[in-house]
Specification:
By secondary structure, the protein is α/β, with parallel strands linked by helices. The protein has one domain: TIM Barrel (Alpha-Beta Barrel), CATH 3.20.20.210. The protein has 14 helices and 12 strands. The protein has a 9-stranded mixed beta sheet. A 3-stranded antiparallel beta sheet has the order 4-5-6, with no helix packed on it. α5 packs across α6, α7 runs parallel beside α9 and α11 packs parallel to α12. The longest helix is centred in the middle third of the chain and has 25 residues. It starts with a helix and ends with a helix.
Length: 350
């Protein structure tokens, strides 16, 4: 780990302001459990302030250190055997799926992501974050739906839901077993408060697959993951983009504790709150499509934040505030990020 990374991690682990005797960890847990937190918990990038210590952030730094600065447009193969084209951004573009023929599944080997050696470097920094009272959020390096699309290819996967159901379920089962082992490894470190996975289920007007198909293929495996996370004393976080309204009830029944949304306006704040409020905690950005419009004013930003807090936080908790972590990708200006930060601070996070 270079000195710049060490300095970053030290800064990242610093606790945020809280009432005397209350840690950042406790504020987050109270919000998730609807136990009247003293303020709305948050995760901001401008300025860099967070109640969380996320291993996903640290993993991104480690992976950036280890890359050999490949040129934009260069092709390489990751440890899953998926071709990746360098984009020069936070995520590269996948191509050449190794399981475009699911008949290859019988000889395909999943990478050993649960090897204890992969977690050793995290241990001292997570112990430090625990001492500082941060909410420690472990990351999922698999992500069932996203990884399935990369391994099989999007179009092939969509067809295989109908033509090769057993093979798809075998793939999901194998990845789930690996994920359970990863959860066990995080738990062995100690002090982990939550586990987060990322699967973008939504389009602009609804789901990418039908709710019935989600329930047949993914809900049973999500339930296994939720049960293991809760057995280890952690909370389960899920990020999902788009309009996913039709499966949120499923997610609650599965045991998702926190739903992280970057486009909550697609489904409507009041609609989400009236239907699901008090039963699942929302970790929301100010909508990443609405907020980037050139004509958007600071007054509109403040009104949007006020509406979000009044909608979701009225259940003695139920809301965590967030900045979109890759503002350059959505062309969200530095000034707009500051406006969002100040609005949240003035209306519930301070």
């Amino acid at each position: 780990m270079d000195e710049l990374t060490k300095a970053f991690i030290t800064e990242y682990a610093k606790p945020m302001p809280a009432p005397v005797g209350v840690s950042n960890r406790e504020i987050v847990k109270k919000a998730v459990r609807f136990e009247n937190p003293p303020r709305v918990p948050y995760c901001f990038s401008i300025p860099f302030e967070s109640d969380f210590f996320e291993t996903a952030v640290v993993r991104f730094l480690f992976e950036s250190e280890q890359k050999n600065n490949p040129a934009k447009g260069e092709l390489y193969y990751d440890e899953w055997g998926v071709g990746q084209i360098v984009t020069g951004r936070g995520h590269d573009q996948s191509c050449e799926p190794p399981l475009d023929d699911l008949g290859k599944l019988s000889t395909y080997q999943l990478p050993d992501l649960a090897s204890p050696s992969r977690f050793e470097a995290f241990k001292p920094m997570l112990e430090h974050a625990v001492q500082q009272g941060k909410f420690v959020l472990a990351d999922d390096p698999i992500n069932l739906y996203e990884r399935s699309k990369q391994l099989v290819g999007f179009e092939k996967l969509m067809v295989s839901f109908y033509t090769d159901k057993d093979a798809v379920k075998r793939l999901l089962s194998g990845m789930t077993d690996l994920m359970l082992s990863i959860i066990d490894q995080w738990a062995a470190i100690g002090g982990i408060d939550g586990f987060m996975t990322w699967d973008d289920w939504g389009l602009q007007t609804g789901l990418q697959i039908s709710p019935e198909m989600f329930r047949e293929f993914f809900r049973p495996f999500y339930r296994k993951i939720a049960d293991r996370v809760h057995d280890k004393g952690m909370l389960l976080f899920l990020h999902s983009c788009g309009d996913i309204f039709d499966i949120i009830e499923d997610l609650i029944e599965i045991g998702i504790d926190v739903l992280q949304l970057d486009q909550p306006r697609l489904m409507g704040h009041q609609r989400l709150s009236d239907t699901f409020g008090g039963r699942i905690c929302f970790w929301n950005t100010v909508d990443i499509q609405w907020s980037v419009a050139d004509e958007r004013t600071e007054s509109e930003i403040r009104d949007e934040v006020k509406k979000m807090i009044s909608s979701y936080h009225r259940f003695n908790g139920g809301l965590i505030a967030r900045h979109y972590p890759q503002p350059d990708d959505i062309h969200l200006s530095h000034e707009r990020n500051w406006a969002i930060y100040n609005a949240f601070m003035d209306m519930g996070c301070r």
